[in-house]
């Protein structure tokens, strides 16, 4: 009998110095137990997966020594981002990663932060599992996107996550106005992310290009003690600026 | 000093007979502890909130007797769905609910299932809190939408949740084709939900109106022992049908 591919959530403190949260703040106890018993992993990054499993081990001893676990890294996505519709060659590489499932082992898919297969290349592995009829099971854990959406107070009955915006200024401005128009027309909250050191630049671009009455929400360092969410109109943000930290992850949301 | 509005996740077994999951399967231990100490609640439904708090109490004794807790129900949303842009009268009703925060109490916002303020009217309360500069903090917990998205293997780098589809057949068919075209153009996964007894009707409408090569994923009863996710092309779904249960919640996703 084939194993199950478990989608294992990770914490949201990736890359943040001096601010490790307890696993108990973000992961359910049974999810921690599942992490402790899984012996085969597919990971965005093997090193951070080992760090995660050390934290698991401190709560529930791992079923095998950390060094004896199999941790395979996901193939690097093609430039421009991977989608489940990439070519057949790429599909073969993902398929090969699923060998432990066919041998009857359960596997864990894990990313560097939050839920795997969301805002990361892991969806390709899940798609490969479905193509073979293998069982996939998502586990409960922190999603910075949905925590930010809830904390924003913007429309949670219709929303979209659009990933990163273009970096080039003219294209970025155009994309911001396009998202604002779409949001206003559909009353659909638009969520986006940015590399932390560019947080301030993204905030400035949003404030420069959005209309004064558009609602803008920023959530920073969610699940951490220093975490915060601010929601206000663009006019209010301009009148009373907030400086973005350059080393903390943030989620930006707007409703036109 | 004002209190904090905590967004308290609920389990995903609302209304499902004989299938209560352990809180430990979906909620982090520290979140359960937070639920046990909060004395003022704003709830989609007071009765189900009391049932939730009884489950919390069995793990961590509540700081006060259940009967002495303040549980206020959210105002019913106006027909057609509430958004944070509703009129001033409506805003006053929401503002009144926040009185405990101004008095220095922490408050919990909770819905009947999953994360509050997402796919439910709670966002109005969060918006009212921001309007007064009150602190809002989202907690980690299960989101059937993002668990379904992850388990689907469809694009998790760009996705939208569009709520319910129209019920009338012609409008529904039109909306399905519109979402498929949008999804194909943007490579954006489109997620939707339905009232459980209409799950089969929605699946049939999707299979009747989508193109054969479009990918369709259905996740049912997520976080429960009988939970499952199936992702396949519309052609494959048609060739090998799955009958939808009529009493279990489901999330439908498509990628054109």
Structure write-up:
The structure is a homodimer of 256-residue chains. Chain A is an alpha/beta fold. Chain A contains 10 helices and 10 strands. Chain A has 2 domains: 4-138, Cobalt-precorrin-4 Transmethylase, domain 1; 144-255, Tetrapyrrole methylase, C-terminal domain (Methyltransferase, Cobalt-precorrin-4 Transmethylase, Domain 2, 2-Layer Sandwich). Chain A has helices at residues 23-26, 29-37, 46-59, 88-97, 99-102, 123-131, 144-152, 169-186, 199-209, 234-239, and strands at residues 4-8, 40-43, 70-73, 107-110, 135-138, 159-161, 189-193, 215-220, 228-233, 250-255. Chain A has a 5-stranded parallel β-sheet, with helices on both faces. In chain A, strands 6-7-10-8-9 form a 5-stranded mixed β-sheet, with helices on both faces. Chain A is globular and about 60 Å long. The interface between A and B is large, with 73 and 73 residues. Strand 6 (159-161) of chain A pairs antiparallel with strand 6 (159-161) of chain B.
> Helix share of residues of chain A?
25-40%
The interface involving the most residues is between: A-B, 73 and 73 residues
Assembly classification: homodimer
First-last Cα distance of chain A: 51 Å
* Unreliable stretches covering 5 or more consecutive residues of chain A: none
Let me know the CATH homologous superfamily of the largest domain in chain A.
Tetrapyrrole methylase, N-terminal domain
Principal-axes geometry of chain A comes out as globular
Biggest sheet, spatial arrangement of strands of chain A: 3-2-4-1-5
Average predicted local confidence, pLDDT of chain A: 94
By CATH, the architecture of the largest domain in chain A is named 3-Layer(aba) Sandwich
Q: Number of folding domains of chain A?
A: 2
């Amino acid at each position: 009998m084939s194993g199950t591919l478990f989608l294992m959530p990770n914490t949201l403190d990736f890359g943040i110095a001096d601010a490790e949260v307890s696993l108990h703040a973000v992961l359910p106890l049974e999810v921690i137990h599942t992490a402790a018993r899984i012996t085969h992993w597919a990971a965005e990054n093997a090193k951070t997966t080992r760090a995660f499993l050390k934290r698991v081990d401190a709560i529930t001893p791992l079923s095998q020594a950390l060094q004896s676990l199999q941790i395979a890294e996901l193939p690097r996505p093609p430039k421009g981002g991977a989608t489940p519709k990439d070519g057949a060659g790429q599909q073969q590489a993902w398929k090969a990663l699923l060998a432990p499932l066919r041998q009857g082992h359960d596997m864990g898919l894990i990313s560097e932060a939050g839920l795997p297969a969301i805002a990361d290349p892991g969806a390709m592995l899940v798609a490969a599992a479905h193509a073979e009829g293998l069982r996939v099971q998502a586990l409960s854990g922190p999603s910075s996107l949905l925590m930010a959406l809830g904390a924003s107070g913007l429309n949670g009955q219709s929303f979209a996550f659009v990933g990163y915006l273009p970096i080039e200024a003219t294209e970025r401005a155009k994309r911001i106005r396009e998202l604002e128009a779409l949001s206003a027309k559909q009353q659909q909250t638009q969520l986006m992310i940015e590399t932390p050191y560019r947080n301030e630049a993204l905030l400035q671009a949003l404030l420069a290009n959005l209309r004064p009455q558009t609602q803008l929400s920023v959530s920073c360092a969610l699940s951490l003690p220093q975490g915060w969410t601010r929601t206000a109109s663009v006019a209010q943000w301009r009148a009373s600026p907030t400086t973005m930290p350059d080393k903390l992850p943030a989620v930006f949301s707007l409703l036109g």
